[in-house]
Write a structure and sequence with these properties.
The protein is an alpha+beta fold and about 100 residues long. About 40% of the residues lie in helices and about 10% in strands. The protein is built from 2 helices and 2 strands; from the N terminus they run H-H-E-E.
Length: about 100
């Protein structure tokens, strides 16, 4: 027997599908080839795009982190960090990488 809220969820997904695809295509338009040093600026641009998307989705403390690579003249690729602290103290924490 399907969950009582399933029809509402399906309707929501159908209504949001095109906007979600357009948003995801925005990520694909940035040629962030992380293994090619010539695309480092693109990787940073994508990181900023991800940060902005997470902030728009309601996450807190969204930021792009710069990490020291430990190698002279070779910067590390940026990381994106965000927090969702609204679930409650009795809820588990999940990290998605």
């Amino acid at each position: 027997m399907p969950h009582a809220k399933l029809p509402a969820v399906v309707d929501h997904v159908k209504g949001a599908k095109e906007a979600a695809i357009a948003r995801l295509c925005g990520f694909l338009k940035i040629p962030a080839i992380s293994c090619d040093p010539e695309h480092f600026k693109d990787v940073r641009q994508l990181a900023e795009h991800v940060r902005a998307d997470l902030q728009q989705a309601g996450f807190d403390n969204c930021r792009v982190l710069d990490v020291d690579s430990g190698k002279k003249d070779e910067p590390a690729l940026p990381c994106v960090s965000a927090e969702w602290m609204k679930a409650g103290t009795d809820k588990p924490t999940v990290l998605v990488y």
